[in-house]
């Protein structure tokens, strides 16, 4: 991590966020695997949880591995694998959203036709909703950051290009207050 300086707050927030995400994804695998036959209304919901958890954990492991080898063929291979994994995970979240949201609300009584085990369905519903909220926030914050960076860059460039009251365009001697680029 040479050349990368991070504040202690940012680093600790990243570590805590990673730990929480690891725990949630391990729980997703556990809930999905434990209740694999407990959701007859939509049998793909437990599978969705297990696969989403496994794909996220593999993605985290690849991210950590990529940080270790910052150059070379291993870095390129890990980047390619991560790209495919991210595309797969995004498509899997779309499919899981369809499976979860089309069955809302299921029956939590085992004898009924629309039965799904309560923990499994609610975990899938909350996890899917949180993933969409996090993606929306990421895109909004990223978009705001890009707009802010572009505006600041434009303001900075405008400040350098516009003359102040002591300069004048086309001035040839220092008596006029200097060149147009001086601020």
Q: Care to describe what's here?
A:
This protein is mostly helical. The chain has one domain. The chain is 68% helix and 0% strand. It contains four helices and no strands. It has helices spanning 8-34, 44-68, 73-101, 118-161. Helix 1 (8-34) runs antiparallel to helix 2 (44-68) and helix 2 (44-68) runs antiparallel to helix 3 (73-101). It starts with 7 loop residues before the first helix and ends in a 22-residue tail after the last helix. The model has no long low-confidence stretch (mean pLDDT 81). InterPro entries: TMEM272 (IPR040350). This is Transmembrane protein 272-like.
* Helix proportion: 55-70%
User: What would you report as the Rg, rounded to the nearest angstrom?
Assistant: 26 Å
Question: Which residue ranges are poorly predicted, with pLDDT under 50 across at least 5 consecutive positions?
Answer: none
Strand content: under 5%
Overview in brief:
This protein has 183 residues and is mainly alpha-helical. It is 68% helix and 0% strand. The protein has helices spanning 8-34, 44-68, 73-101, 118-161.
Highlighted features:
183 residues; mainly alpha; 4 helices; 68% helix; 0% strand; Transmembrane protein 272-like; membrane; transmembrane
List the helices and strands and how they pair.
Blueprint (H helix, E strand, L loop, with lengths): L7 H27 L9 H25 L4 H29 L16 H44 L22
């Amino acid at each position: 991590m040479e050349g990368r300086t991070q504040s202690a707050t940012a680093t600790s927030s990243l570590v805590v966020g990673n730990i929480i995400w690891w725990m949630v994804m391990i729980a997703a695998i556990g809930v999905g695997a434990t209740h694999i036959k407990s959701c007859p209304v939509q049998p793909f919901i437990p599978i969705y949880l297990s696969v989403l958890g496994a794909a996220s954990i593999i993605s985290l492991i690849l991210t950590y591995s990529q940080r270790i080898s910052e150059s070379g063929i291993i870095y390129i291979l890990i980047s390619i694998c991560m790209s495919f994994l991210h595309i797969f995970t995004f498509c899997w979240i779309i499919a899981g959203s369809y499976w979860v949201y089309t069955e809302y609300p299921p029956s939590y009584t085992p004898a009924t036709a629309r039965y799904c085990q309560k923990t499994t369905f609610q975990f899938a519903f909350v996890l899917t909703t949180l993933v969409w909220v996090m993606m929306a926030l990421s895109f909004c914050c990223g978009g705001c950051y890009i707009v802010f960076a572009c505006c600041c860059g434009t303001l900075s460039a405008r400040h350098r290009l516009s003359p102040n009251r002591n300069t004048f365009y086309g001035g040839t001697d220092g008596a006029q207050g200097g060149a147009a680029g001086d601020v």
